[in-house]
Queue: 2 jobs
Job 1
Amino acid sequence: MIISILNSVIFPIELLLASYICAVKINKRSYWGLRMVLSLFFACVFMAAIDHLVPGNMLVKGSISFLSTVLLCGLLLFWIYSISLKDAMYCCMIGYAMQHFASCFYILMSILLTGNTPASIWINSSTLLLYLFIYLGSYSVLYMLFAKNLPKDGEYIINFSNSAEAFILVIPIALVLSLIEKAINSDPRQILICQVYEMIACALVLWVQYWQKKVVNLEVEMTVQERIFSERRRQFEQSISNIDVINHKCHDLKYQIQALKSEELSANKKMAIDEITNAVNFYDDSFQTDNEILNTALMEKSMVCRRYHISFSAIVDGKKLGFMNPMDLYVMLGNALDNAIEAVRKIKEEEKRVISMRVYAKEDLIILQIENTCLEETSVPEDGNLSTTKSDKNYHGYGIGSIRKIVEKYNGSLSLRKNDNMFILTAVFAR
């Protein structure tokens, strides 16, 4: 009787544990630990009730037990974790693929080691140890290979239509074979074939989800990159118009200031006019790089730096970057300088807010280098992709990726490094 009860509740325990492992990176609700314990208890009671109360033959009873338990586990995950119901069901199905793979592997090893399928996993200590070793090992390996990277920022970002296709095509087949194997329990060879196929089917589902997530990540990145590019184009067009207006106004103001200087003025008024003259000269003559796109970008960013009291200097040979498409050049510089400004703005001491930029030729190379003060302990990953520190992670953090794509478009290489208190971005192109 006890063995029968244990066998009837072991499936929801295995399924929930597998789902808990899959949901390690998912946002949790309050008192989630208590919710987990209560969910295990409730699932066991529910499964035991289903097993003893639902009438019918093995196929009908098994199907009802499976479907009701999976649905219940999905609802319990929704109760434990701060995710949508469809995310909870998705997590449950990933957990089922892991659980079923481990179950098949355990039965397979039992056949190979004993020649017969065990009537119960709790018969003796040797069977229990084999069970624990296989399940824990399978869960760990499958999680590290596939399930670990499925969630992002505490939720699943997936294409549910494509994911559902994999589950609909493969999981029911595994379920049917599982029911068939119970009907042919007397033939270990046929059971062995079923276990191998079911393991392959479950591994295939997890593999498809893993690659599906990669495709979705690329789609999200491309969408964001398109938005960034579109915003940069609009900003570029607006900047050209604005700076052109500023330049014309500056020329007009210079003549008006000259006229005022010829009059007899007090010392205070002369000082005020000198300050206005300096400001006009800054906007009128800041950057002349022989590249209109560079002039526009540098002028725009220098005004931002001026607003935040950032020391910005640029030694640039604009002709060296003439091989780049104007929009590519503007987006690349805009993202790079925006990243530098964002980092430097956090520094409290204004005298330490420094950004410098150089574009120069060295042998057969053209080098773009942007340096900015960086007092934080910032580590640069090997792939050079920095994670954003902004709250809106869906639309930020793609600046470096955008720069890299543009650099690689022109067969260049991008490197990021931190040297003492300076963060250095270097793009190198062949002439």
Job 2
Amino acid sequence: MTTFQTVDDLEPDQRLLVRIDINAPVEDGVVQDNRRFARHAETIAELLENDHAVAVLAHQGRPGRETFVPLEGHADILADHLEREVGYVADTFGEDALAAIDALESGDVLVLENVRMCEEELPEEEPEVKAETEFVQTLRPEFDAYVNDAYSAAHRSHASLVGFPLVMDAYAGRVMEAEYTANSAIREREFDGTVTMALGGTKAEDLIPVIERVDDTVDRFCLGGIVGELFLRADGQDVGYDVGGTDFFDHQWENHRETIERVLAEYGDRLLLAEDLAYEDSKGDRAEETVEEIEKDTSYLDVGSETADRYADLVRDSEAVFVKGALGVFEDERFADGTVEVLSAIADTDCFSVVGGGDTSRAIGMYGLDEEEFSHVSVAGGAYVRALTGDALVGVDVLERAA
């Protein structure tokens, strides 16, 4: 049960400052469309139907990275989803931004510049500190209310996420509301049958706490990806280390070896490890070998067919299934089998299911699966992990305080 105000509580015809998360891949300097645009466009469209004027705050990349670009392209993509004109101003809270905000009328949408181009946005500081920044204090009087729809960034204590709810009326958007409700259910809902979780991805520090904190809910964990290889290494297999110039395994093994070995010993047969792995052979084709016969001299890019079939069978025998992280490099069709077989098994099964992680959820659309076949598809990554482990989300906390 949510304890914050939602857009249902808004009076119509107001000027709203709306924080969304449309952080997206950038290729050759051009931002690419992704599922987040579509999800947030639904929130904005509903606000426009209620005669609100909307100014959008969002971020893209981090300073110093190639993905750190202005939001002009984001405004164009948002316009395509909304099927209406969306304004853009290359300023966040300076004179140009204030003039554009002042000109907003009911039904207008304006995208302000990348908030991470503001010096006061990024440092992780207490909400009370962020509320006193010039950024927040300048924009505050220009709006009737603030709406946070950026659940996927709700674990960040940045000015645009935590400052405004302390100084003005604040509400949760539809994405924030839906994500919070669905992801909280993982810890709070009780199931009579077997609960399975598929865990993959690249970061051991993300997934180890999940295993430890949801063990009362989840009966078995199916591991894949780089994390799965690290656990295979702990199990004595000749994998889980860097070869050919990769930099995925050795530093994580050094930092987390004791924890990985302890978790493997403690959870025993509840942790299911890959029986075979797939790689690219000399002809560029997918090839597989069982873990017992592996002497690692190449990168493994997916769980093998036997493992994928085994995991899919376990999914079909479950009352609930949760997914965090891909089991392989699904962006390459040759190495999508593990991820797609598990997702397809979920879609074919009448179970409660949550697929989390912005990257993993992309596989649903890429491989022609119907999002309606899943109970919830989360666009969140870090915030989803926090929800699984029960850690507080500061962006949610300040909305609750505002209420």
